[in-house]
């Protein structure tokens, strides 16, 4: 067989998707699993959003759209940022629709990064950031956040990581996997620092609405000349499989990103765009209901984890993940987070994801995007396993 490309030979498989495949395989064999590894809502897409997709099909809205998405959906995204943050964006040239936020982030990486560039990625990080940066030929600079600061980040920490080669800072708050949030004043100072030191802030706001203490926060509030936003319907509206998101930023960069997308996916699915339009413009009561339920699940999950000797878990302020310190469970054959995650799967039937995959050994990512019954059952299994 002819050799594969050099770039793909160093590319890691998405750890979260790999865990999902393993869990699905075990379920198909009849194994009763409690899945704390899943990174998507357990809620179904709200009915009014599904009905919008049905109408699109019946109306034969099934052709190509503009590469950057329909005019109506771009306008709806612009109105969202104006309504929520008082931020003004031109829907014709400063907004594009993508096949999920992941494509928005990858489009941005290809449009901005090249060999020799450095991109700062705070840890713990979502698994795709380093791989996308490497695919674009740039160098990842990891910046560790601290558990005693609840995995948040300060402008001073960012400033210490800057070099003349810094091209961008990738931020994700509320954070996957830690649930950390960012102080509004710090985000404002980071955007100001980026302007002064000439680098981009790429802000992944997929969990924007998942705030349990305080209000949603967006970098859109603090200027747009060097800020690229990646948003999505996936988590907020339980639409992970619809693959619909957006990018917001300077017109020149968005134009470059749209060129890349036009040669990749042509355009996001027309039907999913109609569903997203309904999601953004209809009453948001369904979102409030889901967030309230996640808050309750968070409280139960964290309280239960902290009752287990060897586990220490901060109360996450956002997303739907807890990121407990599990180093106290390392002994004998369990020497790291990966060993522990495997042990939990094999001995308790509980699916988790090793913190190693997010750049932080000594921790596990535990999702509470599952029913209260399964959360309680999973906690019972963990308590039985560790006494």
Automatic annotation (TrEMBL):
Aminotransferase class I/classII large domain span: 32-382
Keyword Transmembrane helix: no
Pfam family, one: Aminotran_1_2
Membrane-crossing segments per the record: none
GO molecular-function terms, A-Z: pyridoxal phosphate binding; transaminase activity
Superkingdom of origin: Bacteria
E.C. numbers: 2.6.1.-
Keywords: Aminotransferase, Pyridoxal phosphate, Transferase
Keyword match S-adenosyl-L-methionine: no
GO terms classed as biological process: amino acid metabolic process
Primary enzyme class: transferase
InterPro entries: Aminotransferase_I/II_large, AspAT/PAT-like, NHTrfase_class1_PyrdxlP-BS, PyrdxlP-dep_Trfase, PyrdxlP-dep_Trfase_major, PyrdxlP-dep_Trfase_small
Gene3D superfamilies cross-referenced by the UniProt entry: Aspartate Aminotransferase, domain 1 (3.90.1150.10), Type I PLP-dependent aspartate aminotransferase-like (Major domain) (3.40.640.10)
Named cofactor requirement(s): pyridoxal 5'-phosphate
Family per record: Belongs to the class-I pyridoxal-phosphate-dependent aminotransferase family.
PANTHER family: ASPARTATE AMINOTRANSFERASE
Official protein name in the record: Aminotransferase
Lineage: Bacteria, Candidatus Fraseribacteriota
């Amino acid at each position: 067989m002819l050799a594969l490309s050099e770039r793909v030979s160093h590319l890691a498989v998405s750890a979260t998707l790999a865990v999902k495949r393993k869990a699905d395989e075990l379920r198909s064999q009849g194994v009763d699993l409690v899945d704390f590894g899943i990174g998507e809502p357990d809620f179904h897409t709200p009915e009014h959003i599904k009905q919008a997709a049905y109408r699109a099909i019946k109306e034969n809205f099934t052709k190509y759209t503009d590469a950057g998405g329909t005019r109506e959906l771009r306008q709806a995204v612009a109105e969202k940022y104006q309504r929520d943050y008082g931020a003004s964006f031109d829907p014709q040239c400063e907004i594009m629709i993508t096949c999920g936020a992941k494509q928005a982030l990858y489009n941005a990486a290809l449009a901005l990064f090249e060999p020799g560039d450095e991109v700062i990625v705070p840890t713990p990080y979502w698994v795709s950031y380093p791989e996308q940066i490497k695919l674009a030929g740039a160098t990842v600079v990891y910046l560790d956040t601290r558990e005693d600061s609840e995995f948040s980040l300060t402008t001073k920490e960012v400033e210490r990581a800057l070099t003349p080669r810094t091209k961008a800072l990738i931020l994700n708050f509320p954070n996957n996997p830690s649930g950390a949030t960012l102080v509004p004043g710090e985000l404002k100072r980071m955007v100001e620092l980026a302007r002064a030191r000439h680098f981009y802030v790429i802000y992944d706001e997929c969990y924007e609405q998942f705030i349990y203490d305080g209000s949603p926060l967006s970098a859109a509030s603090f200027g747009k000349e060097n800020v690229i936003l990646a948003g999505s319907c996936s988590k907020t509206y339980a639409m992970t499989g619809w693959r619909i998101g957006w990018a917001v930023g300077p017109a020149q960069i968005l134009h470059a990103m749209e060129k890349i997308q036009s040669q990749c996916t042509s355009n996001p699915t027309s039907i999913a765009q109609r569903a997203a339009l309904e999601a953004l413009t209809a009453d948001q009561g369904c979102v409030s209901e889901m967030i309230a339920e996640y808050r309750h699940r968070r409280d139960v999950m964290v309280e239960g984890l902290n009752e287990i000797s060897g586990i220490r878990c901060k109360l996450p302020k956002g997303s739907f993940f807890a990121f407990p310190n599990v180093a106290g469970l390392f002994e004998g054959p369990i020497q790291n987070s990966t060993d522990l995650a495997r042990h939990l799967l094999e001995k308790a039937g509980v699916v988790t994801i090793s913190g190693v995959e997010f750049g932080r050994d000594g921790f596990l990512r535990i999702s509470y995007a599952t029913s209260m019954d399964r959360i309680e059952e999973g906690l019972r299994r963990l308590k039985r396993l560790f006494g």
